[in-house]
Amino acid sequence: MDQANKTSAPAAQLDRADTRVRHDEGIGGWLRSFYDRVRSGDLGMIPVIVGLLLISAVFSTLNPVFLAPNNLTNMLFDAAAVGLIALGIVFVLLLGEIDLSIGSMSGLASALLGVMWVQFGYPVPVAIAGAIAAGAIMGLIYGFLRNRFEMPSFVATLAGLLALLGMQLYILGPTGSINLPFTSGMVRFGQIYIMPMWFSYALAVLPGLLMIWTGHRTRQQRAAANLSSTSMSVVILKAVLLSAALLFAVWYLGKGRGVPWMFGVFVAFVVVMDYALRRTKWGRSLFAVGGNAEAARRSGINVKRVRLTAFVVCSSFAALGGVFAASRLASSSQQAGTGDVNLNAIAAAVIGGTSLFGGRGSAWSALLGVLVIQAISNGLTLLNLSSSLRYMITGAVLAIAVIVDSLARRSRASHGRA
Amino acid sequence: MAEGQRKTAKGELLLSLRNVSKQFGAVTALSDIELDVHAGEVVALVGDNGAGKSTLVKILAGVHQPTSGTIEFLGQKVTLSDPGKALEMGIATVFQDLALCENLDVVANLFLGHELNPWRLDELQMEVRAWTLLQELAARIPSVREPIASLSGGQRQTVAIARSLLLDPKIIMLDEPTAALGVAQTAEVLNLIERVRDRGHGVILISHNMEDVRAVADRIVVLRLGRNNGVFTPADSHEDLIAAITGASDNSVSRRAARKMESLGE
Ligand SMILES: Nc1ncnc2c1ncn2[C@@H]1O[C@H](COP(=O)(O)OP(=O)(O)OP(=O)(O)O)[C@@H](O)[C@H]1O
Ligand SMILES: [Mg+2]
């Protein structure tokens, strides 16, 4: 009787049949598997957190203004434009390709905005749409060159870098810069508009609540399907930690000006693209093509179309980033998008955890990475360092990010985590 | 695809190849290949290394395009211009090199290109289907949420086989599916081949293991140096089959057998 009871007792969960696997339960188990993941080279958010702590420590001792709430708000204003460009490059990096023209693309977009809006007098939305359309067309061209002629994206976009810069200089004409009207909503968006405090607080608790809600729902559904799931305590712990961090950030920024709308819009784009990457068939196919293009092709994925869409998304976001940059600077100039914009955006994505080798990355990497990059750039500006030094330091940061990426990749390979 | 949905009767001609040739530059991998596959039939494709078996499978999977020749599927001439088209028609393949994405987990690989609910992936349903399929194959896979990179060779092969079954194809082609499998898993795959056949599907099996081939095949098609070299049944003698594969009755296999006999005789 007893025996019969035992065998008919709740059938083993579908995914818990293999006894060789350690199933980590509860918070202790979560910490343990986190430790294992990091050791195998799956670094997650660690480089970003370590980077931000180091940067804050160094710069705030050199200049206490660095951590002042208003300076941080400025930093968030500045981060949005490069962040959008970084968000776009994530999609191309996921495929193991690269786009070196994102800086020029953003510059051209900002010039197009200025010309269409200020010189031709088109309504702002039309000018913005025009700039983004230019980005999309450029992406189509890169995708076509890659698909039709197997032209390495490295070369195609390097050529594009120069061509786009030329176009930017050409349409700006001899004056070389167009000032955007200071009283316009567009410029206020880039310099003044701040979220109301109650709204910022609401946004700060929203992710935590969503995590708990989806965590609970997933748990119920998985239990109904006879599958195991992460214990609720882990979900709640993560949600509490995240909410606490976000609430503290909002509170601290609120001591100064608060959270810029511009940054909020950037984060909204990150959320949308994160969904597209993780929860849609298209996102899955990006990872597949980046991991093994031939295997993806044999699974019936239209590899060429996937590549094309990735280049279009990338260039479009670069253009949108250019629009944001123009509204931030209240001008479209020959300098827009030049200098370190290109590499800052790529470095941001890589620091945030998107691999240059393809097949690994996330939309969040753009957000996390751009915070690091912007903190460095802002700190160096506060120290009144010349741009020569800033370039050298940004270059070094990019090199370090790539080294970390390569080492982590090697370690993952030897731990069977690809 | 309307024709893809049609039910097939047992014994109906599913696939027929006429004069199919394939050239890779100067190398003629296949010349004038003829092959028929009927519903409810297991056709074994055998031949030495480099005989052109995988090339033939890849042509039928839409990976390579034939240089010349015609392919008929369900009585209609078809061009398999890309792998998606072959899958859509109901030709599924387990490739010799497996073709899995190492960075994706088992579930993602199984459903790659055919995810449930494209705009809001149904991870739960996919995971349940994954476990059910893998259990049918007696798979020993610790977790379907780990990347393929962490699996052993045999486990990967099981995943590749499970993937080919997912879409309920009309023809399934297995290019050395049991090469890396353990005893139990090999038996499961052979059982599975028989189950698939009994369900009225056609199976093309490539294997170097003559025991497995004889156990499940209805016909054994021999390729040699890219050409048809005879069709056998499991009832035919082992020596004839080997002779067809190696191209001579006096070959290394027969010489080895003769030496064995001699040493036993002493
Ligand atoms: N992509 C390719 N490019 C050039 N030559 C190729 C290609 N694929 C196959 N070949 C050639 O075609 C011939 C047949 O190869 P194939 O892979 O079909 O052999 P096989 O019968 O599957 O052999 P094995 O038993 O070793 O798997 C070989 O001579 C090979 O060199
Ligand atoms: Mg082969």
Question: Would you mind describing this structure in some detail?
Answer:
The complex is a heterodimer of chains A (418) and B (266). Chain A is mainly α and 418 residues long. Chain A has helices spanning 2-8, 26-39, 46-62, 69-94, 102-119, 124-149, 153-172, 185-191, 197-224, 232-254, 261-279, 281-291, 293-298, 303-329, 341-351, 364-382, 387-414; strands at residues 177-179, 331-333. In chain B, the strands form 2 sheets. In chain B, strands 6-7-8-3-9-10 form a 6-stranded mixed sheet, sandwiched between helices. Helix content of chain B is 36%, strand content 24%. Chain B has helices spanning 2-5, 53-60, 83-89, 106-110, 123-136, 153-165, 183-198, 210-216, 238-246, 252-265; strands at 13-24, 27-38, 42-46, 68-73, 76-78, 91-94, 171-175, 202-206, 219-224, 227-232. Chain B is globular and about 65 Å long. The longest helix of chain B is centred in the C-terminal third of the chain and has 16 residues, at 183-198. Classes of the chains: A mainly alpha (418), B alpha/beta (266). Adenosine-5'-triphosphate is lined by residues 24, 27, 29, 47, 49-55, 96 of chain B.
Distance between the termini of chain B: 66 Å
Give the total of domains of chain A: 1
- Sum up the overall morphology of chain A in one term: globular
Into which percent range does the helicity of residues of chain B fall? 25-40%
Secondary-structure element series of chain A: HHHHHHHEHHHHHHHEHHH
Please state the average pLDDT score of chain B.
Answer: 89
Q: Using DSSP, what is the number of strands of chain A?
A: 2
CATH class of the domain at 13-101 and 169-235 in chain B: Alpha Beta
Assembly type of the chains comes to: heterodimer
What is the strand arrangement across the widest sheet of chain B? 6-7-8-3-9-10
Instruction: Tell me the strand order in the biggest sheet of chain A.
Output: 1-2
CATH class of chain A: Mainly Alpha
Structural class computed from helices and strand pairing of chain A: mainly alpha
